[in-house]
Amino acid sequence: MKKIFIFISLIMSIVFVSTFVSCDKDNENGSDNGVSVNTLSAKWEISDNNSPYASFEFNKDGNYIVVENDFETNLRSLSTSSKKSLFKSNISKVVSMRSSQSNLSSIHFGTYKIEGNKIILSGFGLMEVISITNEEFSFSFTLEATGEKNSFVAGKSDEPISSSSRTNMLCRTWYCEKITFTENALELEEIELLEEMAEEMTGMTILLSKAGTYLCLYTNEEAGLAEWKWANEEETQFYFSWENWTEDLDEMSIATINQLNVNSLEVQDYFFIYHLTLKN
């Protein structure tokens, strides 16, 4: 009888320890109430046109992108340059909606942290999760600047970028250490202007996601938001568009990946070669 009692006690101890470790691990990953980095990492779109926000996007590197509903309107109001113009480079479509009256812009980018059922968006606001599934995300959001609180229901966006080892390595948050020039740039008389542009872009953050998001956050805190998709089966080149694919895709809308691994990325477009490292 004593041996049976010891055996049962041992089994109960193992179950208790396993449960404790499992719960502790869940808490570390912020999975209370079904919220974790894995369940949250996606682009969540709000279909209500009256909503101040169009989408909330999160990635596994701990970054968020929030796009306001007026972004598309503001983007269409920007003057566009000729396809063959010098200003067709990435920085030509930089979008800054900041004004002297407000520190809020139409694109918000930063880091996030999960604490229980709360998601803290640094410098922007607080989300409180009501429910989250593979298809739908219900939450309240409190804007840090004003304290205004509203509730939203968002649906998970399709992921047009197929998962692969190269896709998974590319879809991260990157830091631009330096920029060099292609032969196309060196042939231009306006090389001094390109040098100025390269200086402004050095130090920027670039984020790509499986939802097709291509974000550039420049050192002056201006943000450019584009879309991307693979251009070949080998996944060595990708198209990018600043106008929702309404523009013609030619040599100035394609980027070539010269190097890609888990820690570094080298991308070349028409004028520039971007030397990137994984952002901490």
Task: Give your account of this protein's structure.
By secondary structure, the chain is an alpha+beta fold. The chain has helices at about 1-30, 35-40, 70-75, 165-170, 185, 190-200, and strands spanning about 45, 55-60, 65-70, 105-115, 120, 125-130, 135-145, 150-155, 175-180, 205-210, 215, 225-230, 235-240, 255-260, 265-270, 270-280. A hairpin with a 5-residue loop joins strand 7 (about 135-145) and strand 8. Mean pLDDT is about 80; it is low at about 1-30 and about 75-105.
β-strand percent reads 35-45%
- The stretches of 5 or more residues where confidence is low (pLDDT under 50) are 1-32, 75-104
Strand adjacency order, main sheet: 1-2-3-4-5-6-7-8
- Strand count: 16
Radius of gyration: 22 Å
- The topology string of helices and strands comes to HHEEEHEEEEEHEHHEEEEEEE
The end-to-end distance, rounded to whole angstroms, is: 58 Å
Question: How many domains?
Answer: 2
The CATH class assignment of the largest domain is Mainly Beta
CATH architecture label of the largest domain: Beta Barrel
Shape: globular
* Class per helix and strand makeup: alpha+beta
Summarize model confidence as the mean pLDDT: 81
Count of DSSP H/I helices:
6
What is the third-level CATH name, the topology of the largest domain?
A: Lipocalin
